[in-house]
Design a protein that fits this description.
Elements (H helix, E strand, L loop, with lengths): L2 H23 L7 H21 L6 H15 L1
Helix pairs in contact: 1-2, 1-3, 2-3
Length: 75
Amino acid sequence: MQTRGKQLLSVGAGGATGALVRELLGHVDGMPPEIGILFANMLGCGLIGLVLHIEHRLHPHVREFNAAGFCGGLT
């Protein structure tokens, strides 16, 4: 697969995973959905900061999966 295709696949898989986690956090029993969404946004912002801080150590596809994909879908 071409590098561009791998990038798109990586970001797409991360985005789908992040969106799923966000949805699950919005439906935690005993917690208002707004709190779950707030937690998802805070978690996503913190994770993207961490990923960008250590990006020089990560493979580009891992960085894209986490930063653009997962954190983007989560927030």
